[in-house]
């Protein structure tokens, strides 16, 4: 769904537990850009859906986990060759603290400190820098 700026709004969940976050490689699907890059769970807002609700729904659909959405950390507008996106990043955690992502979903718990070494879509640079700096603080 397009926002006021004409950008496609996207809700993204930073599902964290014990210094790790859930990521997977973007699947190679027809019409889905940037296959093979790592990503956080998320996707486009449906008509009338808030980014927060989209983040919760996509986390559920993609990882199988029911999540509690926390604060909105950042909003990033980015132009890709495939279009203009407005990415809303939310802190999230599994409603059941011991729950694991669905087998076959491709999601893994990656240490936050490892994220700078992985290839993500370009628009994720600011959130990756922010997460890396908060992991330094925790470590230090
Ligand atoms: N899920 C997700 N999308 C991201 C991230 N970083 C980033 O730039 N994006 C971009 C890629 C796409 O342009 C857009 C999300 O679209 P998508 O294609 O993954 O979403 P979707 O599941 O709703 O799409 P569809 O294939 O069902 O049409 O946000 C990220 O970390 N996670």
Automatic annotation (TrEMBL):
Keywords: DNA damage, DNA repair, DNA replication, Hydrolase, Magnesium, Metal-binding, Mutator protein
Coiled-coil annotated residue ranges, if any: none
Chain residue ranges for the region called Disordered: 24-51
Superkingdom, taxonomy of origin: Bacteria
PROSITE patterns, per database record: NUDIX
Annotated GO biological process: DNA repair; DNA replication
Domain Nudix hydrolase: from-to ranges: 6-133
UniProt entry tagged with the keyword Chaperone: no
Catalytic activity line of the entry: 8-oxo-GTP + H2O = 8-oxo-GMP + diphosphate + H(+); 8-oxo-dGTP + H2O = 8-oxo-dGMP + diphosphate + H(+)
Needed co-factor(s): Mg(2+)
Enzyme Commission code(s) on record: 3.6.1.55
Listed InterPro entries: MutT-like, Nudix_hydrolase, NUDIX_hydrolase-like_dom_sf, NUDIX_hydrolase_dom
One family name in Pfam for this protein: NUDIX
PANTHER family from the UniProt entry: 8-OXO-DGTP DIPHOSPHATASE, NUDIX HYDROLASE FAMILY PROTEIN
Name under which the protein is recorded: 8-oxo-dGTP diphosphatase
Annotated source species: Tautonia sociabilis
């Amino acid at each position: 769904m397009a926002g006021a700026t004409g950008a496609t709004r996207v809700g993204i969940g930073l599902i964290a537990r014990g210094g790790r976050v859930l990521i997977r490689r973007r699947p190679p699907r027809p019409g889905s850009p940037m296959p093979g890059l790592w990503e956080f769970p998320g996707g486009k807002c449906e008509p009338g859906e808030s980014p927060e609700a989209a983040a919760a729904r996509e986390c559920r659909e993609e990882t199988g986990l029911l999540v509690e959405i926390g604060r909105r950390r950042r909003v990033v507008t980015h132009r890709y060759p495939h279009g203009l996106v407005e990415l809303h990043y939310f802190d999230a955690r599994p409603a059941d603290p011991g729950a694991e992502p669905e087998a076959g979903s491709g999601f893994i718990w990656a240490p936050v400190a490892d994220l700078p070494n992985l290839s993500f879509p370009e628009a994720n640079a600011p959130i990756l820098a922010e997460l890396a700096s908060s992991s330094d603080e925790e470590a230090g």
